[in-house]
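cache lookup: miss for this entity combination. No prior model stored, computing from scratch. Input as submitted by user K.M.:
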Amino acid sequence: MKRPSASLPPRLRQTRGAVATRLERFRPRTPRGYALAAAGSLAMIAVLAIGSFAAAFAAVTFYEEYGFRPEADAREWAAHEPAYAGQGSCRSCHAAETGRQLTSQHRTISCESCHGPLAAHASDRAIAQLPLEAPSAGMCARCHAATTGRPVGFPQVDLSTHYRSGECRACHDAHSTAVVRPPVVVHPQVKLPACTVCHKPEGLKELPTGHEEADDAICLGCHAAGADGLHGASR
Amino acid sequence: MNPTMPPCSRRTVLKAGLLALPALGAGRLLSAWLASPVDPTAQAAEPLPEPLAYDPATHDWVFVCDATRCIGCGLCVEACKQENDVPLEPECNRTWVERHTIAEDGSVVVDSPHGGIDGFPPATAADGDVGERVHEAYFVPRLCMQCDDPPCVSVCPVSATYKTEDGVVLVDPARCIGCGYCVVACPYGARYIVPAGDELPGGYPGVADKCTFCYHRTTRGLTPACVGVCPVGAREFGDRADPGAAVHALLEDPRVRVMRPEQGTEPRVYYLGLEGEVS
Amino acid sequence: MAVHVTTRDLAGIPHAVYGAVRAEVLSQPFALKLWFAFLTALCLLGAAGALIALPPGWEVFGTSPAFEWGVLITGYVFFAVTTSGLCLASSLGTVFNIERFLPFEKRHAVLALLSLVTAFGIIALDLHFPVRMVFGAVLSPSPFSPMWWMGVFYGAYLLFLIVEVASMFTNHYTIHRISCVCSSVTAVFAPLTLGAVFAVLAAHPFWHGALTPPYMILSAFLSGTALLGIVFWAVHRFRLTDFERAATVALPAARFLLGIALVATIGLLGVKLVTDLQSTTPYLAETTATLVSGPLALPFWIGRVGLGLVIPIVLLALPRTRTPDGILAASALAFVGLIVDRALFVHAGQMVPTTTASGIVSDPFAEYVPTLVELSILVGAGAFVALMYTLAERFLDMRPHLGHQVPAEVEVTVFVPAATEGVL
């Protein structure tokens, strides 16, 4: 059987010999030399291992950076903080308002529908101390202004004829939806006939939405009940 | 890997890793391989549940929009922008509401001022355009259909948008190249490119963005923000995998249909009370 | 052998370069100086637009969710399709070694490389994260996306073209021959996938369908041939390298191919128009009607059909205009018609709204007006191709490639297996 090296071209065999000769010079000859060689080899292996580990880590990180990673990205989407706390967080502090709201027509509406996102308010004591700003009248109009496209039967008011349509909460409690303070009218005319002469759909001024046509006694039952009773006095 | 880690930290770690800090690398790799995503000590004082115990394989989210209930108040559009830091530009909407006004002669006018974020003008802008008596009008809430066969996912050249196991289509903002192919491919116009100059927490300008079914809320057991603020229950959200979910009753309604079924996209958003060809 | 470089030597380099450039400029005829100055100015305009458009500057584009692909996509499609067409038009000479198409070699390859680089440059400016695209396409491939395949084929095409051009000017015949075959094959697949990018979009019925990819290949062939017709007229007119063959062989060959491409394009366009106008697919007939009788009718009938197809065919057919100048006119008109066609293709596909896009109601048509930045980039891109090609004509050796002139029997030994050699 031929030795493998015999088949190599002479130039290569020569090279191999030269390498062996060169390596011979580095062979340790004392115990201290062996220890140093061992330490050196270990250090080299350690460097190689750490280096390849760092390279593998860089490659993995690189793949994570640019490769396909739907699970990790879905977790990142899931990790965003909610801005809206959702139902149930408000009642512990705002029992009066939620109590009125939960028995009203507005009971299906979330507090945050009108008051805006309040997750930070619900979780942070400092923010919770701030008084809640009352929603503007525009918030009522968003839902209750008569608008083409709204379902028939949904309570809507024509803002152009509704009494004091810019100040809804002067009369309506948004939580209970009840009319708590009927408008007290300072009527410009004295010595008038019955209210319904003028306040009819076909009359001078339309009846406010939601009012049945009725006689004076019923009108004045609400509209004369103000503190100064001006409307009643004008007659 | 800790799911509460802010997205940008990955880049920081990459830089550190390239500086060959093998100990850090080992720790991170080990934690990536070994750690379960559950960290029971994290944020125990938070009143909101954390998304940690969430298993997407056990959920099957569906959404039902009721056009017969929607009043076009636009609270959902506003809530979506607030909840998801959607850019305030009127042409950037993850969800919007549009009004379909059908005249006596059958012509249809659609309007959606700024996506309906401030509600709708009482006297419809469509009235003048139609020039006819309004025969019928209704509002249609719009959002990503989270299709089961999504064209946007198949066309993305770098797989940056994908379908989760629970049925949601998400966009990886760190992969998206902003080519706009998905925006063009969506038959529902559900996507937009985040404009430059919009600084989004965890997001990037220039990438495609869309409705996520409020993934950070659903994974915590909350409903999407638009569902929560809807005053009339025109938006319902539920888990089809949960036998007790209220959406089952809605889905059995014979009036239920999906938008543009001819596209073959198999939407997860169902509609009640859609008339004619709404798209 | 050591080279000692001193600061004095380095300081001399700018002077030497300046001197060489000055001598070159002074030696040019006035018309050429004017031509270079004109193109350089347009290139600078384009460069300014490109700088503005670099991220995060993409708000300078006029696109919106309702009209997401603007005029830059038009430009990309135009140059990407032209580059494949150049290879297709010349493959008869380079691949099949047909004598009368041989003069296309070298010039087509240089032009193809320039158009392709320009197409890539335009798409890089249109993309918001081009670097991510390179890594993403490799690390998270998406084999269901035609755009991914388009990247694969155009990437391969770029490689083959570089090898083809390099081997052509360094006289590596075998490498050149192989790379010619490879680039011609990818030149078929690349516009096919580009067509598929649009053809898979069911959301846009005008683009959707099996006819879009073949139409893309056909118009690629047309635009490549038209550009070669323009170039060889210039070779003939300005007595550039190998101008003798330009008039006797190359221009007639271009005329022949241009005629075939024009007739085939008219046929396919007619079939598409008729079927689309009668289609019951939602929005398809409406979209086609915008071209035929709607707001796009003027550019369509005058630019696309009249100037781009009918007049060139007439010019090619009439005996009086079968001159080099007639071929130039036909090629240039066909080329302009293709630019119009690209713009119409991208525009019409998005114009008829099929949905409310991200809250934008488009009524009756989706609106898009290209911004000055977008237009300047396109103008600069065209000027870049022209400028680089003029420089190539001036400084590269455009003499015929010897590899294509080897005798026929040597060809047989290269391509036919040994077993059949005796039979032949």
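stored under new cache key. Chain C touches chain B through 47 residues (CB under 8 Å).
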